[in-house]
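Hello K.,

You asked for the raw outputs rather than the summary table, so here they are, unedited. I folded two proteins back to back in the same session to keep the settings identical. This is the first:
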Amino acid sequence: MAAIVRLSSVCRRGVHPLIYQSTLLARPLVVPHKHQEQNYLLTARIHASQTLNASADSKAASLHWTAERVLSILLLAMGPVAYFHPGPAIDYSLAAALTLHGHWGLGQVFTDYVHGDTKIKIANAGLFLLSTVTFAGLCYFNYNDVGICKAITLLWSK
C-alpha cells in the first residue's frame, strides 16, 4: 500500500513511470497464433470457460465437495469415540465411512489420471468392485471377528 501511495506522489510531480502509464494498464495483451496470421486476445480465451455456465453441475459438485469434507470431519471424530466406546454401531459406521472415504478418494485419482472412455468405464467398474469387496470384508470382520474398534485396540496394546 505504501508503494502505491509513494508511486502516486511521484506521478503528481510530473514523472510518469513506465509501469504506471494508463495506456499500458488498459491495453489487452495480443499474441499471434502459430498457424494463422490473425491475432488472438488472451483475455477472451481466459473467459471462454464452459465450467462457468454449468450451474446444475456446479451445484452437485459443491454438494459432493461438502459431503467429502463432512465425512472427513466425522472420521476424525469417530476415532476417539471408537477407542473410548467400542461397539457394533461404531464398527459398522467405521466400515461404511472408511469405504466411502476410500471410494471418493480413489474416484478423484481416477478422474485426474485415467483418460479415454473405455479406460474410464473399466476404472469405475473396478472402483465399484473394490469398494463393494472392501465394505463386505469389513462387515464380515465386524460380524465374525472382534470388530474394527477392538482390532485397533489390540494392535495398540502390544
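The second followed immediately with the same parameters:
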Amino acid sequence: MERKAVVICSVVGFLGLLSAATGFGAEGTRIKGSQVQFPSASECVYPRSPAMALGSIAALALMIAQIIINASTGCMCCKRSPHPSNSNWRIALVCFVLSWFTFVIAFLLLLTGAALNDQHGEESMYFGNYSCYVVKPGVFAGGALLSLASVILGLIYYLSMTSAKNSNEPLGNPSVPNQGVQGGIAMGQPQFPPQSTQDPVFVHEDTYIRRQFT
C-alpha cells in the first residue's frame, strides 16, 4: 500500500473512531426526562450536559472524514466503467452509495440530538398541555453506529478505487496487448532487396585515364 493511502486511511479511521466515541459519549450524558425540573406549570429547567458538545464534535468529525475520502478519490459520477465485470468498480460503487446513505442519516441524528439537548427554559403547548423536549434513547447511539459504518464503507470505497487505478487493467479501459496483429491487420516487416555480397573490382589508374581519352 502506498504511503498516501496509509496516511489517508489512518486519518479517516481516527476521525471515524472519534465520531463514534463522542456519539456514544453523548448518548451516555444526554438529558433524561427524570432530570428535567418544573418550577412552574409552563417552565422547564434542563440541567447542564456535555451531550450537545459531544454530538457536535461527532457530526463534525464525520463530515471531515467524508470530505477527505471523496476529495482523495475524486468525483465518482465522472468515472463510468463500460465493463461491469470489473469487481473493484462494483465494490466501489456499492460502498460509495451506502457510505453516503449512512453518512446523511448519522449526520442528521447527531445534529438533531445535539440541538434537542441544548434547550433551556423552553416548552411547547399541545392541546392546552405543556411539554418539555428530551432526546429519545438511542438517537446518539444510532448516529454513532451509522457514522462508524459510513467511515468503514468509505475506506473500502477508497481502497477499491485505488486498487482499480493501480491495477494492470485501468478502470474502464482494458489494456490492449501489443502483439503483431492489431485491429485485424497483420503488421509485417518492410522488405528490402538483399545487398550484394560480391567483392568490389579495382581498376588501375592508368587504365582509367586511357579509357577516358580513348
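The radius of gyration is 36 Å.

Happy to rerun anything if the numbers look odd on your end.

Regards,
P.
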